[in-house]
Specification:
about 290 residues, alpha+beta, 2 domains, twelve-stranded mixed beta sheet, about 30% helix
């Protein structure tokens, strides 16, 4: 017998399920469960009493013309390998979305784990709404013009949260996160050898891997983007940065910038806000 229900997220059973479905460092998973998913509404599917699948709805809001509307971010959708192919996740997502709508959520946001899942989520009514700019930044091209660049810090979260809020408020449909979510995402990055650096006009959340430094979120005043990137590369000792950021702030960059799909949106009330496509998601723990 299949059973869908809402549960307490902070359980070893759910963490074990999460780690069995995702290639996540256990230290990072500890942060995700203790600081991020502890704020989420958790749903699971059981088959004959055995936990088979889980999904989480993390509260957020969307920018809407100078105001915000209630929403959630759907994340951590995973099914144990021996229960896959039975339609459990489809049933669980429908159950979770119905419950979210009854609690007043107007929109559901998600970022598919891989491109093939865009078709899967479109079956529920999700549509592409989010994109990001991606590019490679080589600091030697800018070091002379930015010789007086700003020294960076790693602990101005209040400033950065306000900056992010203001920039995203100007892009209708963009996802707004709390300061605590920004802090937690930076701790997850630190678990992968990265962290966050920034100043009063911008910040970058980054990780270090075998390919060098990758910036998963960069939010900055557009006119200061080159300066921030140069300072970041200098601080990290990097000769190249792989960068991802909101589309609108790269207009004056003058580099080979490409756009990638970064997420989908589903109205739960039957009405949809007029999006400024592409809107911005970010801090999605992808």
């Amino acid at each position: 017998m299949n059973e869908f229900l809402a549960v307490d997220v902070a359980t070893p059973e759910l963490k074990a399920l999460y780690l069995s479905c995702f290639d996540e460092d256990e230290k990072a998973a500890d942060i995700i469960f203790s600081q991020i998913l502890s704020k989420a509404k958790a749903y699971l599917a059981r088959v004959d009493g055995e936990t088979a699948a889980a999904v989480y709805l993390l509260p957020c809001s969307l920018s809407n013309g100078g105001d915000t509307v209630q929403a959630h971010y759907l994340m951590g959708a995973g099914t144990r390998e021996n229960f896959r192919g039975r339609g459990l996740m489809s049933g669980l997502i429908k159950y979770a979305l119905k419950d979210a709508a009854s609690r007043g959520d107007l929109y559901s946001v998600l970022e598919p784990a891989n491109p093939s899942l865009y078709n899967f989520y479109s079956r529920f009514g999700y549509r592409l709404a989010y994109q990001s700019s991606v590019f490679d930044f080589y600091p030697e091209s800018y070091i002379n013009s930015n010789s007086n660049f700003q020294l960076l810090t790693k602990n101005s979260f209040d400033t950065w949260a306000k900056l992010r809020f203001n920039i995203c408020m100007d892009i209708r449909g963009s996802v707004q996160w709390s300061e605590s979510h920004l802090r937690s995402c930076c701790e997850v990055s630190a678990a992968y050898g990265g962290g966050v650096l920034g100043c009063e006009f911008g910040y970058a959340v980054f990780i270090e891997n075998e390919d060098g430094f990758s910036v998963g979120e960069l939010v900055c005043i557009p006119e200061k983007l080159n300066e921030l990137l140069t300072a970041l590369a200098y601080s990290l000792g990097a000769d190249k940065l792989k960068v991802r950021c909101p589309v609108g702030i790269t207009n004056k960059l003058g580099l080979d910038v490409q756009k990638i799909d970064m997420g989908m949106l589903l109205p739960l009330s039957g009405e949809s806000i007029p999006l400024d496509f592409p809107s911005y998601l970010g801090l999605s723990l992808d």
